[in-house]
Input
Amino acid sequence: MSHDPAIPPAPRPGGEGFRALDAGWRQWIAENRLRHCTAESMLATMAQAGLDPAECERAIRAMEEDPAFLAARKFQQLNAKLASVMANQQRLRELDPLYGHVEKRSRVSPAEFMDKYVIGSRPVVLTDVARDWPAMRRWSPQDLRERFGHLEVEVQAERSADPLYEVNKLEHQRKTRLADFVDRVLAGGATNDYYLTANNEMLGRPGFAPLLDDIGTLPAFCDRSQLARRASFWFGPAGTVTPLHHDTLMLCHTQVVGRKRWRFISPLQTPLLYNHFEVYSPVDIDRPDLARYPLFAQATVLDVVVEPGETVFLPLGWWHQVSSLDVSLSFSYSNLAVPNEYRFDNPRITNW
Output
């Protein structure tokens, strides 16, 4: 049995001191039956919430003949077919004995990159992309402070107290001088409480243009003319975590200072990740709650540590969770010279 959706808020009292079985509870019954929860488990939950057991039992039986519920059952069958197609395609991919290994490659030709990693939809770590980048010799927290410390940046802060800090990232935006943020990172130790992420959009400002000058040769599959408007800068302490989500385009992410651990899950396994809201999964790969999210136990997680000078290629739609193992400076860019704008019909369910 999968977990029950959130219990509806308490309505006005019903008869004989019981809570009223209102529309919220009737929707709850429908959702739980669609999740194949048993009538017995539902009755126990509802009785514990103060509802009349006899009325609840009648409502559960009646739901099986409700026209709207029967229509939902038809759409559930269609959705189950799509999920089974995805699962079977994933099984075929996992026949590859190297499926669970994220390759580290150099000297990948544009044709091979396109065929094996873009069209083939496989993450890879390219080890030679940044070999001539001035950033590899120059970038450091101290360099940021010296060259750009007087400039204001937008960071995420006070993340530790919010389990949904990435979903609520706009609420965590704070402005600060870069010098002050550098000092905070260097003095604060490992933490997930603050992070300068791609959302800062600082590379579009003239004052930070020298950072783009520190980017050397790009892979042949990238369009240099689009770099300035399709690049992002990341800086933060060890301990930062970007929770499990997928992007809506493909990108490269070059690690300049420090190491990051990347975990990937195929987009074909999306039905296992409880993606109820936008591009996010509530599952924490480090501490998965299998009582609440039991399907995640079936997911295959690919794991790789990316070292300074290495570049992750993130294929379209792949789920990923990223953890900084050290103080980290990274540069990401989505200016691939291939179609890189895609539409996802994302759910916006907030009460599951």
Observations:
- The chain has a mean pLDDT of 95.
- Residues 99-333 form a domain with the Jelly Rolls fold (CATH 2.60.120.650).
- The chain has two domains: 15-65, 99-333.
